[in-house]
Amino acid sequence: MPVDVKFEGMDELIKAVEALGQKGSRIENAALREAGAYLAEEMKKEAPVRTGELWDSIEVSNVKTKQGQKYVEVGPNKDTNWRAKFIEFGTIHIRPNPFMSRAYERNKDEVQNIIKQKLKEGLGLQ
After folding, report:
1. End-to-end CA gap in the chain
2. Would you give the DSSP letter of residue 74?
3. Contact present, 72 and 64 (Cβ < 8 Å)
4. Segment 44-48 long-range contacts (CB within 8 Å, at least 24 positions apart)
5. I need a surface site. Which of 32, 35, 37, 66 has the fewest CB within 10 A?
6. Regarding predicted confidence, which is higher, 123 or 102?
7. Which residues pair with 58 in a beta bridge?
8. DSSP letter for each residue of 6-54
């Protein structure tokens, strides 16, 4: 004998869960942008300054998603990126100065901590 079950208030519950999902996404995006901004400042400290063009070009991208994973890109913009590769990896005439790699390696733990902290704050888990 089949039983009829009726859930009352499900529409409100679904809306609440959807709202949390949107809020969570906004919090996640803000955490990624803040961590990216921190890394960009640290990268600028490592960047060689000759004309200042490379230093000025270091920026944080908008939040992107690839295969379900959100991320930001931190580094020289497209106009300067091709020259930054020569500095980072070197050429037959220039010794490598891996300023981007150095900044990332020195600060990756702090970047993760910033993301964790911002997520906890945003979701009220502190």
Report:
1. 49
2. E
3. yes
4. 45/103, 46/99, 46/100, 46/102, 46/103, 47/99, 48/87, 48/97, 48/99
5. 66
6. 102
7. 76
8. --SSHHHHHHHHHHHHHHHHHHHHHHHHHHHHHHHHHHHHHS--SSSHH
40 has pLDDT over 70: yes
For 51-94, what is each residue's pLDDT tens digit?
778 888 999 999 998 888 889 999 998 888 788 899 999 999 99
**With a threshold of 0.85, does the pTM exceed it?**
no
User: Cα 120 from chain centroid?
Assistant: 16
Burial of 103 (0-12, 13-18, 19+ CB in 10 A): buried
With CA atoms as reference, report the closest residue to 29 among 62, 55, 77. Answer: 62
Separation between Cα atoms, residue 32 and residue 60, nearest integer Å: 10
Indicate the residue type of 110: E
* Percent of the chain residues topping a pLDDT of 90: 39
